[in-house]
Structure formats: C-alpha cells, structure tokens
C-alpha cells in the first residue's frame, strides 16, 4: 500500500468523542516501550506522526490518524506502565474496554509484543480478553533487528507455543522492525487486503 497521506485527526478520552465511524479502523496497542510509536512512524513513513517515548502514563488518550482518506489508524494508550496510579489504571481500563467492545468500525487490533521478551502475563491476559470479547486481532513482534533472525525465530516459536496452550487457532503474526522497515509491506498489505 502506498501511503499518500497520513494526518492526525483527534485525541480523545471518550469513545463518544471519537471521529464518525465511517472508515475501517485499525488500532495499535502494547506495553509501554514496546516500540509502538516507532512502528507507527515506520508504517506511515511520517517520522513525527506518533511521539516516541512520550512520558509514561501521561498519554491516556485515543489518537486517531486518517490514512489515504480510506482508513483510520489508531494509537491506543499502552499498558504495563510501572509508575501509574491505581485510579489512572482503572480509567485506562474503562476507556479501552469501551473502545474495544463498542467501536463499531474497529476492524482489527494489532497487539505489539517485544520480540526479545518471553511471553508476559499482561500481554497474554490482554489477548485473552480480546478473544473473549470477540475482537479480531493480529500480533506484531517488534524490534526484530535487535537479535539474529535465528534467535528471533526461536523466540517467536516459543511465544506461539505458549499461546497454543490456550488458543485453538493462533492469531496471525507479523515480524517487524522500525529500524529496518521489516514487516511494513506485510502489515500494510494485510490492511489493504482486509479493506478490499
Ligand atoms: P512506545 O513507548 O511503545 O511508543 O515505544 P517507542 O517507539 O518510543 O520505542 C521505545 C524505544 O525502543 C526507543 O528507544 C526506540 O528507539 C526503540 N525502538 C523502537 N522500535 C525499535 C526497533 O524496531 N528496533 C530497535 N533497535 N529499537 C527500537
């Protein structure tokens, strides 16, 4: 997919304030520092689009971007911040839950997972919840340039084996690197295919 235009639309804390749901929507989420901003910038080819390493816990907003006037790319606030109060974690939960279960044009969620790390409970639980709620999702393993491709493949095989313990059918997964651009064509191609 050629990205002809990518621009910021709005930041919201309420589902009701999100843009009119008149385009397919793809939302990206993951633990803080997983590489979400870098991946969104890499996908869109716009370096300042998503802000890299914004202050942890400060960005509890749903950011909408319009791509090619065809689909919405959504940057969801991450989970797993160490220094976030209980009440803001609860606010996050409410907002994300409302968004994920009631956003009518939400086509697919992309869950970002750091390719270097073994499966983390917080990610597995988040994906299980998506499954329970019937929200379609794919997984994107980030920062694959940080180790050899042999090591990346081993790590991902371990990850998928762990998921097979609870999932009959594994969600689709992508290998990505914001450094090298690996996974860009595959993820954008997937979105293009689904939008067709
Ligand atoms: P976010 O908190 O999930 O938005 O993560 P960021 O995009 O801010 O990235 C967190 C850190 O990881 C930054 O120092 C990035 O430069 C680094 N990073 C992100 N993606 C990659 C990647 O694909 N490869 C490498 N080597 N570093 C990355």
Which properties best describe this structure?
single chain; 196 residues; alpha/beta; Rossmann fold; seven-stranded mixed beta sheet; 5 helices; 21% strand; binds guanosine-5'-diphosphate; GTP-binding
Elements, N to C (H/E): EEHEEHEHEHEH
Record field, number of beta strands = 7
CATH class category name = Alpha Beta
Number of structural units classed as domains: 1
> Which of globular, elongated, flat, extended, rod-shaped describes the shape?
globular
Q: Which structural category fits the helices and strands? A: alpha/beta
User: Biggest sheet, open or closed, and with what strands and sense?
Assistant: 7 strands, mixed
Radius of gyration: 16 Å
Descriptive report:
The protein has 196 residues and is an alpha/beta fold. The chain has a single domain, classed as P-loop containing nucleotide triphosphate hydrolases (Rossmann fold, 3-Layer(aba) Sandwich), CATH 3.40.50. The protein has helices at residues 36-44, 86-102, 121-133, 149-164, 184-195, and strands at residues 6-12, 25-30, 62-67, 71-75, 106-114, 137-142, 173-175. A 7-stranded mixed sheet has the order 1-3-4-2-5-6-7, with helices on both faces. Strand 3 and strand 4 form a beta hairpin. The relative contact order is 0.18. The model has no long low-confidence stretch (mean pLDDT 93). Bound molecules: guanosine-5'-diphosphate. Guanosine-5'-diphosphate (GDP) binds next to helix 1. Necessary for normal cell division and for the maintenance of normal septation. It comes from Hymenobacter bucti. Residues 22-196 form the EngB-type G domain. Keywords: Cell cycle, Cell division, GTP-binding, Magnesium, Metal-binding, Nucleotide-binding, Septation. InterPro entries: G_ENGB_dom, GTP-bd, GTP-bd_ribosome_bio_YsxC, P-loop_NTPase.
